[in-house]
Amino acid sequence: MNARWGPDDHEEAAEADDRLLAVRAAEGDEEAFEVLVHRHSPAMLLLAERLMGSRAEAEDAVQDAFVSAWRSLPNYRGEAGFGTWLYRIVTNRCLNLLRARRPAADLGAVAEPVAPEHQSSPVRAAESQAAVRDLAQAMGSLSAEQKVCWVLREIEGRSYETIARAVGIRPEAVRARVFRARRMLTEAMAAWR
Hints:
By secondary structure, the protein is mainly alpha-helical. It is built from 8 helices and no strands. 72% of the residues lie in helices and 0% in strands. The radius of gyration is 20 Å and the shape is elongated.
């Protein structure tokens, strides 16, 4: 019999490896924690950047989250996969930062990148800039809780149950937040259909 590993087998092996590394890191093994940081940093940074809207703020949030994870490792019981546990820490850090954020600067003051001329006409570039500006404005109108749930669901492709664990609410509340966010974004972007 030819045993073949499917994607689920690799995920289970990686989660088991993560749990072992987390146990070693909780015992003070800094190298084990470095492996976990190296393994999970790209996904956590991408998540934070999507939530925060800024690479610099995302890097700060992820760094803070990893410091928090290092301090909390003795409390990690392995009930959820390490990546899921880390998603929760990063999500909560971003959520706290978003809640504390002062109203954003006027979006008109922020320059949007323009496509090179050979790829786009001036009219098309202006339309694209306007659509991006309107979308950013619409995203800014979402509550921090709605934005986190929407990004985790629509961009990250996470299940409602995974989001609920990451945010610390019931799956039904996640569905409601995603629904409201979708409705608000759809209404705000109706002119671009």
